[in-house]
Amino acid sequence: MRKLKVTELNRLTPEAFKESKKIPMVVVLDHIRSLNNVGSVFRTSDAFRVEAVYLCGITACPPHAEIHKTALGAEDSVEWKYFKDTPEAVDNLKQKGYTICAIEQVEGSIMLDNLLLDKEKKYAVIMGNEVKGVQQNVVDKCDMCIEIPQYGTKHSLNVSVTTGIIIWDFFKQLSD
């Protein structure tokens, strides 16, 4: 086997990406502290053609060198918006017809391996702060909460890892 060169990967240009069909999904970052996590979310969102990333509260916005370090330019291809407060972003998405999903451990959460998405719907997934998770007042506005099953001693995953798992699962279910 031979490793492929970057020129052999046939990736989209940023302009072609902006015109391409996206999966009906918006990722909402609820007070994410780490700029590396923000950059990673942009890069994964680019890889799987997520519609947009909504940055809320203390979450940093591009352009920023620390975001660029992990996003590697995906912050320029993926559409994004900033909201001072996450409930405002959720209300905006609800008005646009999105099903709102917090990625959080709550009573009655749906385990990711049991989640069945409807290709006719649009989804917004809310990723919580690295320490506090998704704010309770945001969880209260959600249509559902999704949890990733875990089988070790820790009760959570890094937010960028969690986002990658969620985006991949949504991509598999929602892409044509």
UniProtKB/TrEMBL annotation:
SUPFAM superfamilies per UniProt: alpha/beta knot
Keyword vocabulary terms for this entry: Methyltransferase, Transferase
Signal peptide span: none
PANTHER family per record: 23S RRNA (GUANOSINE-2'-O-)-METHYLTRANSFERASE RLMB
Natural source organism: Parabacteroides chinchillae
InterPro entries cross-referenced by the UniProt entry: Alpha/beta_knot_MTases, rRNA_MeTrfase_TrmH, SpoU_MeTrfase, tRNA_m1G_MTases_N
Single GO biological process annotation from the record: methylation
tRNA/rRNA methyltransferase SpoU type domain boundaries: 25-167
Record's GO cellular component terms: cytosol
One Pfam family named in its UniProt record: SpoU_methylase
Protein name: SpoU rRNA Methylase family protein
Coiled coil (UniProt feature): none
Gene Ontology molecular function, alphabetical: RNA binding; RNA methyltransferase activity
